[in-house]
Amino acid sequence: MVAPSFIRARRSAMFIPGDRQSALRKAETLGSDVVIFDLEDAVAPAAKQDAREAVRAHFAAAPASPVERVIRINGLDTPWGTEDLLAARAAMPDAVLIPKVESADTLLAVVDALEQTDAPDMLRLWAMIETPGGIVNAATIAARGREAGVPLACLVAGTNDLYKATGLAGPGARAHAHPWLMQIVLAARAADIAVLDGVYNDHRDAVGCAAECQEGAQMGFDGKTLIHPGQIGAANAAFSPGPEAVARARRLVAAFAEPQNEGRGVIAFEGAMAERLHLEQAEALLARAARIADPDRQGKEPANADESLSHAHGN
Ligand SMILES: CC(C)(COP(=O)(O)OP(=O)(O)OC[C@H]1O[C@@H](n2cnc3c(N)ncnc32)[C@H](O)[C@@H]1OP(=O)(O)O)[C@@H](O)C(=O)NCCC(=O)NCCSC(=O)C[C@H](O)C(=O)O
Ligand SMILES: [Mg+2]
């Protein structure tokens, strides 16, 4: 499958605490593909109401944005979740991010709650996978989340909560978590939805952040969640096809188009075997590069949710 050129890039998804009222507007201008307005863990209990109101006011004042906008609500099993969901429903972001999703039932509960509102048009949902139960059930969550009525578009790894819940600690924690992260990637790919890596907490460590962005790209994530504007450049670079990869993809497409290769399933290309699946990968990479180079395309989402979620890769 070749990636349609309208699929949004989600290389960088920056969290901003919802109660940082004065910074909300600026956050959308700093170069990340996605801004996630957080009502959950970045907001203290006493500030939940203010954060909800600040995000609501921000969306009312600026109904459109050049970036994809996501609101992370508190879980429906908390004292704030239902109010958050109603506020998000009114704001109409591109998606609502549900924290600590442990089973598809969590998503179905959100859908039920939305259906009880007087304007139940379905919002896209994103799901944080950040608990042991969420990892164990990731494939079912992603698969059932794509069934009719649950418009799940993206899984997001929550490494802080995952480390907390499992006891993983120390400098080697991420290496130990690799199998779990790959389970999230695999679950998303099997369901043909997007998947984002967890945050890098040390926002003053540019080298470490860049290395983790590169690693996330190699692991198959579409992008990385971020906590600070200083991390956006590293994520955008790591999750964009590089110039050498683009040049090679163009040569591969040209090679398959040569008359002597017409109809062939496999060719020798620059000393290695290239099959038609590699051609599709090269075409997907070129489509992604074109999309990133032309930010106007970011806004062109099709009406058909299935099309917009359709996915292909070619880093
Ligand atoms: C980490 C921070 C608390 C650091 O804040 P601060 O010390 O104020 O940063 P700076 O002084 O370097 O800020 C410089 C300017 O940049 C703006 N800024 C900072 N962070 C953001 C941001 N996230 N979005 C937009 N703008 C930002 C400042 O306002 C300064 O601007 P100016 O005054 O105009 O110069 C802080 O960065 C922060 O709060 N980050 C986000 C934290 C957050 O949202 N956490 C929740 C998500 S992480 C998570 O929970 C993932 C998952 O659930 C898991 O379990 O892992
Ligand atoms: Mg979390």
From TrEMBL:
GO terms for molecular function: lyase activity; magnesium ion binding. Residues 11-229 form the HpcH/HpaI aldolase/citrate lyase domain. The keyword Metal-binding applies. InterPro entries: Aldolase/citrate-lyase_domain, Citrate_lyase_beta/mcl1/mcl2, Pyrv/PenolPyrv_kinase-like_dom, Pyrv_kinase-like_dom_sf. The keyword NADP does not apply. Transmembrane segments: none annotated. Residues 293-315 are annotated as: Disordered. Substrate binds at R72, E130. GO terms for biological process: oxaloacetate metabolic process. Mg(2+) binds at E130, D161. Belongs to the HpcH/HpaI aldolase family. This is CoA ester lyase. It comes from Roseitalea porphyridii.
